[in-house]
Backbone:
C-alpha cells in the first residue's frame, strides 16, 4: 500500500506492528537465539525497539513495546512482566535521549542498547534468583550480559538503517517526500 | 587464310613453350625458382587469410559476446539451482541419519513409547536453556514428559500448547535431576548452570568417584524414568572443608545443535509435592 494511503488512515500503521513484531520474535527464537557468543545472544526486538523509538516521526513506539514485550513474555519462560517492563523502560529511555542527543542518533542508539540490555538482564536475574534459580551475578554479567551487549551493538547499525527506511516509508516526512 | 595459319602457329608455339616449361618444372629443373614462387604465394595467401579472419572475428564478436553472456547467465542459474538442490539433499541426508539413529535407539529401548519432534526455536532469554518443539497437546504431549535423543537425556516438557511445547533442558540453571552413578551406585543431584555446564552435587565425601563414571537417571522424585543415560563424570572436586564433593559431567548430547528429539509419551511424572513435609513458621 502506498504510504500516502497509510497516512490517511493512521490506525493501519499501528496494525503493521503486529506482523512485523511477530516476524521479529520468530526470527529471534528460531535463528538469533542460536547464534551465541559465550552464553550471550543478541536481542533483536530490543534493538528494533530502540531504533524505532529513536525515529522522530514515529509515535507508536509504546504500542510496539507493549505488543513485543507481550509476545516475548508468551514465548519465554521468564515472567511476562519482565520483558514488558524492560522494553517499556527502553522506549522511555529512547524518548528522553531522542530529545537530548537528537544530532547523534547512533550514539543514542548505542547508549540505549547498553543500558537497555543491562536493565533487562538485571531484572531477569533478580526475578530468577528470587524464584529459586541460582545464577551468580558476576558470572551472568561476564558470560551472558557483556557478550549480549557486544552482539546487540554489532547488529545496531544495520538494523538502525533498516528501521529508519521503514519508518520513512510508513511515516513519510516532508523531507522524504 | 594466311592470318589464320599465323595465329594458329602462334597459339601452338605458346602452348608448346608453356608445356615445355611445365614439363621442365615437373621434372625438377626449376626447383629453386618454383620454391621461391610458391613460398611467396603461400606467404601472401597466409597474410590475406589471417587479415580476413581477423576482420571476420571483429565483425562477429559483438554478436558472440551477447550469446556468450546469455549462455553464461543460463549456466550460472543452473549452477545456483544445482547448489540449492545439493544443500537440500545434504540436509535431508543429515536429517535421515538423525532419524535413523533415533529409530535404532527406540528399538533398543522398547519399554518406552517415543514421539519424534523437531526443535523449532529457543527461549529468547539467554539466561534460560529452553527449546521449543513442534509437538503439542494435540499430539498427546503432556507437561512433565521426558525428552531424550539417542545420545541421552535432554530435558522435560515444561509447558504445552496445541501444536508446540517448551522443553526445559537439563543444562538450564533451574534444572535439577536425580541421578545415580553406575559404578559406585551413588545417588546425587545433577544441576544445570547459566553457562550450560552440568555439575553433580550432594555427593558424600566418603564416596569414591572416578572420571568417566557413567551418570544415569535414578528415577527418584518421579520426574524421570530410571536408567536414562545422562553423561560421564569429567572431573571431581573434593575439598576437606566442604560437606559434599562436586563433579562436572560431560554429556554426549550437543545441546547447541539439537534438531530432532524424542518425547517419551508413556511416562507420567509423579507429583510428590503433597508428600513433602510442610514447613511451619
Residues:
Amino acid at each position: 500500500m502506498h504510504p500516502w494511503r497509510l497516512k490517511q488512515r493512521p490506525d493501519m500503521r499501528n496494525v503493521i506492528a503486529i506482523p512485523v513484531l511477530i516476524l521479529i520474535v520468530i526470527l529471534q527464537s528460531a535463528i538469533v537465539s542460536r547464534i551465541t557468543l559465550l552464553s550471550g545472544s543478541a536481542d533483536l526486538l530490543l534493538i528494533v525497539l530502540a531504533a524505532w523509538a529513536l525515529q522522530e516521526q514515529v509515535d507508536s513506539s509504546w504500542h510496539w513495546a507493549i505488543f513485543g514485550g507481550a509476545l516475548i513474555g508468551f514465548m519465554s519462560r521468564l515472567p511476562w512482566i519482565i520483558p514488558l517492563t524492560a522494553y517499556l523502560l527502553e522506549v522511555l529511555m529512547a524518548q528522553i535521549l531522542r530529545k537530548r542527543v537528537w544530532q547523534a542518533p547512533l550514539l543514542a542508539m548505542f547508549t540505549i542498547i547498553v543500558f537497555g540490555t543491562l536493565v533487562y538482564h538485571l531484572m531477569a536475574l533478580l526475578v530468577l534468583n528470587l524464584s529459586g534459580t541460582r545464577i551468580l551475578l558476576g558470572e551472568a554479567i561476564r558470560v551472558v550480559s557483556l557478550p549480549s551487549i557486544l552482539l546487540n551493538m554489532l547488529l545496531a547499525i544495520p538494523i538502525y538503517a533498516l528501521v529508519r527506511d521503514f519508518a520513512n516509508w510508513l511515516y513519510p516526512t516532508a523531507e522524504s517526500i | 587464310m594466311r592470318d589464320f595459319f599465323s595465329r594458329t602457329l602462334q597459339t601452338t608455339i605458346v602452348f608448346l613453350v608453356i608445356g615445355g616449361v611445365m614439363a621442365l618444372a615437373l621434372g625438377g629443373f626449376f626447383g629453386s625458382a618454383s620454391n621461391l614462387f610458391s613460398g611467396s604465394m603461400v606467404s601472401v595467401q597466409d597474410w590475406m587469410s589471417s587479415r580476413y579472419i581477423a576482420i571476420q572475428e571483429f565483425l562477429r564478436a559483438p554478436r558472440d559476446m551477447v550469446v556468450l553472456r546469455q549462455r553464461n547467465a543460463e549456466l550460472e542459474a543452473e549452477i545456483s539451482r544445482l547448489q540449492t538442490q545439493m544443500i537440500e539433499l545434504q540436509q535431508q541426508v543429515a536429517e535421515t541419519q538423525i532419524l535413523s539413529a533415533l529409530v535404532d535407539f527406540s528399538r533398543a529401548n522398547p519399554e518406552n513409547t517415543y514421539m519424534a519432534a523437531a526443535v523449532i526455536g529457543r527461549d529468547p532469554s539467554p539466561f534460560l536453556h529452553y527449546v521449543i518443539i513442534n509437538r503439542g497437546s494435540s499430539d498427546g504431549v503432556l507437561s512433565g514428559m521426558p525428552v531424550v535423543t539417542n545420545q541421552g537425556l535432554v530435558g522435560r516438557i515444561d509447558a504445552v500448547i496445541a501444536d508446540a511445547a517448551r522443553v526445559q533442558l537439563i543444562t538450564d540453571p533451574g534444572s535439577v535431576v536425580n541421578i545415580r552413578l553406575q559404578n559406585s551406585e551413588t545417588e546425587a543431584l545433577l544441576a544445570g548452570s547459566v553457562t550450560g555446564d552440568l555439575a553433580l552435587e550432594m555427593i558424600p565425601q566418603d564416596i569414591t568417584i572416578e572420571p568417566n563414571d557413567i551418570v544415569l537417571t535414578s528415577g527418584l522424585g518421579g520426574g524421570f524414568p530410571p536408567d536414562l543415560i545422562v553423561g560421564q563424570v569429567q572431573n571431581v572436586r573434593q575439598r576437606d572443608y566442604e560437606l559434599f564433593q562436586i563433579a562436572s559431567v560431560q554429556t554426549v548430547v550437543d545441546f547447541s545443535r539439537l534438531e530432532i528429539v524424542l518425547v517419551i509419551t508413556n511416562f507420567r511424572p509423579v507429583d510428590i509435592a503433597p508428600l513433602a513435609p510442610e514447613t511451619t513458621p
In short: The longest strand of chain A covers residues 36-37.
